[in-house]
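Risk register update: the risk of archive-format incompatibility is retired. Evidence:
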Amino acid sequence: MVRKFLFLGLCMSFAMTKATAQDFTLKADTIRIDNFAGTAGTDCDVNAQLMENYILNKTNAPLTVNWVLLSKNIPLDWKLCGVCDNVLCRDENSPALTAFQEQNTNPINVGDSSLMEARIMVPAASTGTLGVVRVKIMTASTTDTATFIITKATTSVASISLNDKRVTIYPNPANNDLTIFTDKELNASRIEILNITGAQQLAQPVAKGAEKTQISLGSLAAGMYLVKVTDANGAVVTTRKFSKK
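Archived output:
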């Protein structure tokens, strides 16, 4: 009887170990580039930042891995130039990026790895500050997410307090339109609407000498957003929060 229970226990232990074994691991869950200044050019082949990660085969046989672009939350003037694996680099016009179509690697040899790389172009002139790209990687028994994050260096911090009435936004909550009042002495030149991760959703210049700027919110889903005001030198004047109904 004791031997029988011991045998069953060993079988259960083996089964649990097998069930929890991973087909692959990522070299890193998140690849980051922080305080990047941006590039003067906008050619993907020359100016894209190559953010390399690797899929490591943990099995005892060659392994084919599937992947799909989960999200690309980047400012409108940034560009996801491509996502690369050990087959090829799918560029910005590939269905892998435009239609989020599932892709697969070539078989990864035992003990070897496959490239998983995001290529992101960040213009130096952009006022966007955060880009996040996520790629879901999977086999029949293992799923993981590779995250690629770039933060862009800012030229200044907010120069006025949240209570400063020289900038006001209304109505808040907003429905179809949002009005932003900026005092002339602040020399505001551009207004951006950002989502809560900092990705640009809308942008509009401030007319010369104008104190009121109205932005249509019809294309935005309900939720929380940020208004960022920058001056003629590209410095951030202030950032304010509002909600869209």
